[in-house]
Amino acid sequence: LAHAAPRGAFSASALAEPAAEQAAAAAGGAGRDEEAVFMAKTAADEEVEKRRLAELKATNMTAFVYELQKYVDQINATGPPPLAPDNELRDVVLRSSTPPSRLIDDIYNYTFRSVPYEDAMYICAPEQATLLHLLARVMRARECLDVGSFTGYSAGAVMQALPASGRLTAIEIRGEYAAIASRFLSQLPARLETRVGDALAELRALEAEGRLFDFITIDADKQQQQQYYEMCLRLLRPRGLLVMFGMMLYPTEEDKEAIDGLISLVANDTRVTTTMLPVGCGVQICTKKGERALTGPLVPPADLPPAELRAYMLEAELAAIDVALADAERARETGGRYVPRPPPGAPEPPHAGGGGGGSGALPGPKAAGAKQP
Ligand SMILES: C[S@@+](CC[C@H](N)C(=O)[O-])C[C@H]1O[C@@H](n2cnc3c(N)ncnc32)[C@H](O)[C@@H]1O
Questions:
Q1: Distance (Å, rounded) from C-alpha 64 to C-alpha 113?
Q2: Ligand 1 pocket test: which of 1, 103, 111 has the largest number of ligand atoms within 8 Å of its C-beta?
Q3: Residue 9: its pLDDT value, please?
Q4: What does the alpha-carbon distance between residue 91 and residue 101 come to, in Å, rounded to a whole number?
Q5: Most confident of 60-69, 83-92, 93-102, 331-340
Q6: CA dist list (Å): 175 to 171, 181, 221, 229
Q7: Is residue 297 part of a domain?
């Protein structure tokens, strides 16, 4: 699960990095020998280390965060060494990116202060959160799903890209972390739906409810990532975006095996177009091709103010265009053998040259199952 913890980004206002730490970072982080020492630690060593870190946390938060970075380097050393993040490069990336919002910063700082360090270091890296925000914005995403939300850092970055009528569904197995996320994220205009439970069960339930999403992020336990991928692909609308974290660096050999298997599946999966970005622990981005998976005509949520309502309807038209484009692409790829089925209960789509094709005929995914006003 390990993310490379954000060097120099604590409190987002970038605390100055101690000179000795800078030198260590420049030297390239933990190597295989250090990893062996790390793996050979006894439970008693761990106890001593826990006490040392607790004391550091109470007296010097900056030093504490950099100590955590060392742990992350050691954990990440089980990944392919040449892929370990280059900290100097990361600093350049962070300095060149829009700084995180106040809320995102607050979640980050609260997590480091209040969550046990062995969990806190799994927080998503700031450059990954910024990337998610940007992608959700470009997608004009409205219905989003976050699998493995932890304290809501990446979920918050996505939610801040949504319109007020947008919604993010957050799945997290640990109730105490979901509660932290909810406390922060309920301040945002977009809606938050929290689902506390095992991701496989929650994803099954979402499918049974007929839900569809524009934008999905997966960042939970890596052993199940392949199953999450398959299930999330079904929950993703055509031309929607699926983003998976932890695709280049892994805490254990078992995770590496699971992710290696997933990478060869995804790279050759004709249902998606995909690429990997070496950002943080490795970000796999997939866009779903083809088949219509939408049901029911469009209805906006009740009580939308006029400006939001207009935006909603226009977005729905865009979503309908996405579906039509995906259908056309699939038909082209199959030499015309693919004929999209109209969703149940919907009027027949207009045939080529018939014009129209707006949200009445080709319902948008963003309010699946509802009726046209
Ligand atoms: C790497 S962290 C996610 C970090 C998060 N994306 C962020 O923004 O900081 C992984 C999260 O997945 C959760 N998780 C692990 N296994 C899970 C499961 N089977 N179902 C749901 N959540 C799970 C963990 O409790 C943890 O909070």
A1: 10
A2: 1
A3: 35
A4: 18
A5: 93-102
A6: 10, 10, 16, 23
A7: no
pLDDT for position 364: 38
**Atom 11 of ligand 1 has which residue's CA nearest to it?**
148
**Together in a domain, 89 and 112:** no
Same domain, 51 and 160: no
CA distance readout (Å), 346 to 209, 349, 366, 372:
19, 8, 16, 11
Residue numbers of the domain that contains 346? 306-367
Q: Average of pLDDT values for 284-296?
A: 71
If one counts the domains in the chain, the total is 3
The residues pairing with 272 across neighbouring beta strands, listed in sequence order, are: 288
Ligand 1 atom showing the smallest separation from residue 129 Cα: 8
Residues 333-355: pLDDT tens digits? 788 887 776 655 555 555 544 33
- Strand-pairing partners, residue 316, are none
Pocket test for ligand 1, best of 115, 174, 218 (most atoms within 8 A of CB): 174
Between CA 147 and CA 32 the distance in angstroms is 32
7 in a domain, yes or no? no
